[in-house]
Amino acid sequence: MAKNVLRFAPSPNGFLHLGHALSALVTWKAAELLDGTAYLRIEDIDVQRCKPEFTQAIIEDLHWLGLDWPEPVLVQSERFDIYADAANRLRNMDLLYPCFCSRADIAAAADGSDPDGAPLYPGTCRHLSNAERIERLERGDPVQFRLDTEAATERTGMLTYSVIGPTLNDRPQIRYARPQRWGDVVLQRKDTPTSYHLSVVVDDAAQGVTHVTRGRDLEAATDIHVLLQMLLGVSTPIYHFHRLLLGDDGEKLAKSKGSPSLRDLRAEGWTPEDVRRAVGVFP
């Protein structure tokens, strides 16, 4: 295994755009600077929206950019049992509890927002008795499982992690994680035995990831990841948060907004060099 390991982990719920190209190229550039290895990971836990044709398109687009990676590619939908085991470890620590609140319930009861701007869950179901939890689970009420963040941070104490930035050549700086600002995050849903937070932490540990490069829009989520890393007894990587590419509306590029895909640009005659110039990452 390489001494330094990085990963690019897109979700195959659409075609890659220039924002993804920036993230991928930054990751492979970091691997080069660190004399490390960059892996491709397919984060397809949302089995309803993720499609095999998008996975194949991701592979084709990245090869077109001149990028390569070790095989086999880790595919998250093949690892649900592993994520469920990690969740059960947290459950055995009395840190995971069932929540029966709908989105409307949460919006009505929330007092504030999380770092993503969503209504902050007020911890309603954390206070249910065991008898009521069992009754509702046996009744088949819609359920998701949340991390008791307050109890978790009492167990771990103060949390820190290292960040390289603003450039990849800078020295690491220490930052403090603040998972409390997220409230009790969802780690499992009834139809999916994991969440983005849980699967990312489990897979980074499994692949021996030493450095994580991700967009600044995911910087706040690192609070939760560092907490889970400590709880599960795995290493915390060094992080680098790169800039985001913005559209004409001043918002980041996104599949949901119909941002031009790499294959659209390729059809218009763009070359890999054109993409590198557009995102500002060169060999």
TrEMBL record:
**Which protein are we looking at?**
tRNA glutamyl-Q(34) synthetase GluQRS
Q: What is its EC number?
A: 6.1.1.-
Keywords for this protein? Aminoacyl-tRNA synthetase, ATP-binding, Ligase, Metal-binding, Nucleotide-binding, Protein biosynthesis, Zinc
The UniProt entry's GO biological process terms, in alphabetical order, are: glutamyl-tRNA aminoacylation
One of the record's GO cellular component terms? cytosol
Residues spanning the membrane: none
Q: Which residues form the signal peptide?
A: none
What the record says about family reads: Belongs to the class-I aminoacyl-tRNA synthetase family.
Domain Glutamyl/glutaminyl-tRNA synthetase class Ib catalytic: where?
Answer: 6-278
Q: Which NCBIfam families match?
A: PRK05710.1-4
* PANTHER family per the UniProt record, alphabetical: GLUTAMATE--TRNA LIGASE, GLUTAMYL-Q TRNA(ASP) SYNTHETASE
Against InterPro entries, the record matches this protein to: aa-tRNA-synth_I_CS, Glu/Gln-tRNA-synth, Glu/Gln-tRNA-synth_Ib_cat-dom, GluQ/Sye, Rossmann-like_a/b/a_fold
Q: Which GO terms describe its molecular function?
A: ATP binding; glutamate-tRNA ligase activity
